[in-house]
Amino acid sequence: MQLNIVVIGGGMYVSGRGTSGFGTVLPALSEWKRSGNIFGDLFCVTTSVQSAELVEQKSKDLETSTGIDLDLNTFPKADSLDIRGYLDVIKLVKKPACAIIVVPDHLHHEVAKACLLEGLHVLVVKPMTTTLDDGKDLIKSADLLGLYGAVEFHKRWDRSNMILRDKFLSGTIGLPLNFVVEYSQKKVVPTEIFKDWAAETNILQYLGIHYIDIVRFVTNALPKRVMAIGQKSYLSDKGINTYDSIQCIIEWSLESGNCFTQNIVTNWIDPNSSSAHSDQRIKLIGTKGRYEANQKDRGIILTTDDLGIEHINPDFCMSYQLENGHNAWRGYGIDSFTSFLDDVLALEGQRISLAELNASRPSFREGLISTAIIEAANKSLLDASSWISVEDF
Q: What pLDDT band is residue 80 in, cutting at 50, 70 and 90?
């Protein structure tokens, strides 16, 4: 069975724009095709002909590297700037088909809703939406149309987090008392890479949400209340009205009624000289043990004259040279996308049901839980860091 695919967005995560690399989406599509799957039409829609041309060039360079021909069609073709140009393209996509949505946070609902209405299964990068109402609307639309909606929470495929889940579910750690998360990125992210829309989001919503979802993934708990504190200094001085750092406390409740907390400390003003793009650590303290993972330091350090000290993460999205001289891509970032494409094919081939996918994947229903927490945290930030109950999700 052929699958037609439309990618909406063409930035760093899609194609590596602004970097020497290829991002994650294009390499994932390449690996999915390498594994024997057959594309129908493959489209990539950006907001301008300049960005479309950059994606097309990245695609050609990737094809040279991997030996896999993507046959990518990029849009727009005319020299214009149109953030809604994707509407014309998704009408061209014949079924069975899916959309991979990689656009700024505040556009997720609008773009995902349009794709659903055209009959496309949808994978959207986190957060699913920025509000509960928008998230519920997407779930309702997907259910009514019999379509699969998922959130690209790639950290669920990280072996480090899968070990944490296994140790929790086996009872090795006992009842959870507290999760502690530290997660940050370099200043270049809000000041250059996402400068045009950094003020439309915040570091907890854009980045910290990954580890909110991981706590849900590990424990199957539900949130009760949220409190958040934020600081504005560096970025506001640069004319970007968003928080430098946010600290958030979430109270969760297990099915048994036992409660535990999660403490998340996030920022995106780490020095650009930091040894990794992301500094990420997670710790779980339980009644029978503790689990600690330094997910920045994966045990590989590279030191060069040009770039200094680098901590390399071989588990996320890395290129490895094959015996034939071509490169292949491996990692949990790749697995997240290829799993979605496999799931869509299985669904279309009636080898799996929507109910099974919704119960086992980071589906829209799962994404709604982290969206509820983000909405509560944003309310807390605007309400003198008061506790906000999380309800009605």
A: low
Whether pLDDT at 133 is above 80 = yes
Whether the per-residue pLDDT at 102 is higher than 70: the answer is yes
Query: What is the distance between the alpha carbons of residues 183 and 279, in angstroms, rounded to a whole number?
Result: 6
Q: Is the pLDDT score of 248 beyond 70? A: yes
Question: Which amino acid, residue 159?
Answer: R
> In whole angstroms, how far apart are CA 154 and each of 25, 189, 336, 380, 393?
12, 19, 5, 27, 22
Q: What is the Cα–Cα distance from 236 to 374, expressed in whole angstroms?
A: 21
Phi, psi of 385 (to 5 degrees): 60, 35
Residue identified by tokens 């996509």 is 93
Strand pairing category for 72-75 and 39-45: parallel
pLDDT of amino acid 294 = 98
Handedness of CA 282, 316, 363, 13 (dihedral sign): positive
Phi first, then psi: what are they for 66, rounded to 5°? -95, -20
Q: Say how far apart CA 209 and CA 134 lie, in whole Å.
A: 17
